[in-house]
Amino acid sequence: MRKTKQRDVILDELGKLCTHPSADELYGRVKKRLPRISLGTVYRNLEMLSREGIIRRLETAGSQKRYDADTGDHCHIRCVRCGRIDDLAAGANRARCDARVARGTGYLVLGRRIEYLGICPACTKKTGRH
User: Fold this and answer.
1) Contact 67, 16 (CB under 8 A)
2) For 72-113, what is each residue's pLDDT tens digit?
3) Could you tell me which of 74, 95, 94, 96 has the C-alpha nearest to residue 85?
4) In the predicted model, what is the mean pLDDT of residues 10-34?
5) DSSP for 20-45, written as a single string
6) Most CB within 10 Å of its CB: which of 68, 89, 91, 97?
7) How far apart are CA 126 and CA 87, in angstroms?
8) What is the pLDDT of residue 95?
9) What are the backbone angles phi and psi of residue 75, rounded to the nearest 5°?
Protein backbone atom coordinates (compact mmCIF):
# COMPACT_ATOMS: atom_id res chain seq x y z
CA MET A 1 0.00 0.00 0.00
CA ARG A 2 1.53 3.28 -1.02
CA LYS A 3 1.80 6.22 1.32
CA THR A 4 -0.42 9.24 0.60
CA LYS A 5 -0.95 12.56 2.32
CA GLN A 6 -4.67 11.80 2.68
CA ARG A 7 -3.97 8.46 4.33
CA ASP A 8 -1.40 10.04 6.65
CA VAL A 9 -3.88 12.72 7.79
CA ILE A 10 -6.65 10.14 8.30
CA LEU A 11 -4.32 7.97 10.42
CA ASP A 12 -3.08 10.99 12.36
CA GLU A 13 -6.58 12.20 13.19
CA LEU A 14 -7.78 8.71 14.10
CA GLY A 15 -4.76 8.25 16.35
CA LYS A 16 -5.65 11.42 18.27
CA LEU A 17 -9.10 10.07 19.18
CA CYS A 18 -10.05 7.48 21.76
CA THR A 19 -13.75 7.83 20.91
CA HIS A 20 -13.80 5.21 18.13
CA PRO A 21 -15.23 7.62 15.54
CA SER A 22 -17.43 6.78 12.58
CA ALA A 23 -16.20 7.65 9.09
CA ASP A 24 -18.48 10.71 9.12
CA GLU A 25 -17.03 11.96 12.41
CA LEU A 26 -13.48 11.41 11.22
CA TYR A 27 -14.29 13.11 7.90
CA GLY A 28 -15.26 16.28 9.80
CA ARG A 29 -11.83 16.40 11.44
CA VAL A 30 -9.87 15.47 8.32
CA LYS A 31 -11.73 18.05 6.21
CA LYS A 32 -10.38 20.83 8.45
CA ARG A 33 -6.87 19.85 7.39
CA LEU A 34 -7.66 18.77 3.83
CA PRO A 35 -10.62 20.90 2.67
CA ARG A 36 -10.84 19.23 -0.74
CA ILE A 37 -11.09 15.64 0.57
CA SER A 38 -14.36 13.79 -0.06
CA LEU A 39 -16.29 11.57 2.33
CA GLY A 40 -15.88 8.74 -0.18
CA THR A 41 -12.09 9.07 -0.01
CA VAL A 42 -12.20 8.83 3.78
CA TYR A 43 -14.43 5.73 3.60
CA ARG A 44 -12.21 4.03 1.01
CA ASN A 45 -9.05 4.73 2.98
CA LEU A 46 -10.56 3.51 6.25
CA GLU A 47 -11.65 0.27 4.59
CA MET A 48 -8.23 -0.23 3.01
CA LEU A 49 -6.42 0.51 6.29
CA SER A 50 -8.63 -1.91 8.19
CA ARG A 51 -8.18 -4.64 5.54
CA GLU A 52 -4.41 -4.22 5.86
CA GLY A 53 -4.62 -4.49 9.66
CA ILE A 54 -3.29 -0.98 10.24
CA ILE A 55 -6.48 0.06 12.05
CA ARG A 56 -9.42 -1.87 13.46
CA ARG A 57 -12.96 -1.64 12.10
CA LEU A 58 -15.58 -2.09 14.80
CA GLU A 59 -18.88 -3.48 13.65
CA THR A 60 -21.25 -3.19 16.55
CA ALA A 61 -24.78 -4.51 16.34
CA GLY A 62 -27.29 -2.06 14.91
CA SER A 63 -24.96 0.88 14.45
CA GLN A 64 -22.59 2.32 11.90
CA LYS A 65 -19.02 1.12 11.61
CA ARG A 66 -16.52 2.79 13.88
CA TYR A 67 -12.75 2.76 13.71
CA ASP A 68 -9.97 2.24 16.25
CA ALA A 69 -6.31 3.13 15.80
CA ASP A 70 -5.38 0.61 18.53
CA THR A 71 -5.01 -2.82 16.91
CA GLY A 72 -3.64 -4.40 20.09
CA ASP A 73 -5.49 -7.08 22.04
CA HIS A 74 -8.43 -5.43 23.76
CA CYS A 75 -12.21 -5.54 23.88
CA HIS A 76 -14.83 -2.82 23.94
CA ILE A 77 -17.77 -1.74 26.02
CA ARG A 78 -20.62 0.12 24.28
CA CYS A 79 -23.30 2.30 25.82
CA VAL A 80 -26.70 1.12 24.62
CA ARG A 81 -28.12 4.62 25.12
CA CYS A 82 -25.69 7.00 23.40
CA GLY A 83 -23.42 4.60 21.45
CA ARG A 84 -20.20 5.63 23.21
CA ILE A 85 -17.48 2.96 22.94
CA ASP A 86 -14.60 2.57 25.37
CA ASP A 87 -11.62 0.21 25.43
CA LEU A 88 -11.17 -2.61 27.92
CA ALA A 89 -7.63 -3.79 28.56
CA ALA A 90 -6.68 -7.34 27.58
CA GLY A 91 -6.27 -9.82 30.39
CA ALA A 92 -4.81 -13.26 30.98
CA ASN A 93 -8.30 -14.74 31.20
CA ARG A 94 -8.85 -14.17 27.48
CA ALA A 95 -5.90 -16.40 26.57
CA ARG A 96 -7.23 -19.15 28.85
CA CYS A 97 -10.69 -18.75 27.32
CA ASP A 98 -9.21 -18.99 23.79
CA ALA A 99 -7.42 -22.22 24.77
CA ARG A 100 -10.62 -23.65 26.29
CA VAL A 101 -12.58 -22.80 23.12
CA ALA A 102 -9.89 -24.40 20.95
CA ARG A 103 -9.87 -27.59 23.04
CA GLY A 104 -13.66 -27.80 23.13
CA THR A 105 -14.26 -27.21 19.43
CA GLY A 106 -11.11 -28.35 17.67
CA TYR A 107 -10.84 -24.92 16.03
CA LEU A 108 -7.60 -23.02 15.67
CA VAL A 109 -8.59 -19.75 17.36
CA LEU A 110 -7.31 -16.77 15.38
CA GLY A 111 -8.91 -14.02 17.43
CA ARG A 112 -12.06 -12.83 19.09
CA ARG A 113 -14.52 -9.97 19.04
CA ILE A 114 -16.03 -9.34 22.41
CA GLU A 115 -18.30 -6.40 23.01
CA TYR A 116 -19.75 -5.66 26.40
CA LEU A 117 -22.96 -3.68 26.59
CA GLY A 118 -23.93 -1.25 29.31
CA ILE A 119 -24.88 2.29 30.16
CA CYS A 120 -21.99 4.74 30.28
CA PRO A 121 -21.32 6.99 33.29
CA ALA A 122 -22.69 10.10 31.49
CA CYS A 123 -25.98 8.39 30.61
CA THR A 124 -26.23 6.89 34.09
CA LYS A 125 -25.77 10.34 35.57
CA LYS A 126 -28.51 11.77 33.32
CA THR A 127 -31.03 9.15 34.43
CA GLY A 128 -29.90 8.99 38.05
CA ARG A 129 -29.68 5.17 37.92
CA HIS A 130 -26.72 3.21 39.24
Assistant:
1) no
2) 888 899 999 988 899 887 766 777 888 899 999 999 998 888
3) 74
4) 95
5) --BHHHHHHHHHHH-TT--HHHHHHH
6) 68
7) 22
8) 79
9) -110, 180
